[in-house]
Amino acid sequence: MVRIRLSRGGRKKHPVYRIVVMDSRSPRESKYIDYIGTYDPILKTGNINIEKAKEWLTKGAQPTERALKILKQFGLEEQTAKVE
């Protein structure tokens, strides 16, 4: 199953997450299929390629709980409502 999930980056005690599309059986830091954007939980900022996210959601990729919250925060509510 293909999932939209977070991959950790950044430095010690200041994580920065990449929002990526990857196989659900893969470890967190392994290779990903596609890169969608970034999210900084401390500053509550990020940038997401909305077109890529919509494309993967229509292809059937399932976001994780945390990725779903971040996608809704950046304005993908109409697409994510179909997934739930």
Short description:
This protein is α+β, with helices and mostly antiparallel strands and 84 residues long. It has 3 helices and 5 strands; from the N terminus they run ββββαβαα. The chain is globular.
Could you walk me through the main structural features you see in this protein, from its secondary elements to its overall organization?
This protein has three helices and five strands; from the N terminus they run ββββαβαα. With 84 residues, the chain is α+β, with helices and mostly antiparallel strands. It has one domain: S16 Ribosomal Protein, Chain: A, CATH 3.30.1320.
The chain-level structural class is: alpha+beta
**Cα-to-Cα separation, first versus last residue:** 16 Å
Question: H/E series, N to C?
Answer: EEEEHEHH
**Strand line-up in the sheet with most strands:** 4-3-2-1-5
Strand percent estimate: 35-45%
Under CATH at level 1, the class stands as Alpha Beta
The overall pLDDT average reads: 89
Low-confidence blocks of residues: none
Q: CATH superfamily assignment?
A: Ribosomal protein S16
Number of distinct helices: 3
What is the helix fraction of residues, given as a range? 25-40%
- In total, the number of strands is 5
What is the general shape?
globular
Number of domains: 1
Radius of gyration, CA atoms, in whole angstroms: 12 Å
Note the main sheet.
5 strands, mixed
CATH topology: S16 Ribosomal Protein, Chain: A
* Shape-level CATH architecture: 2-Layer Sandwich
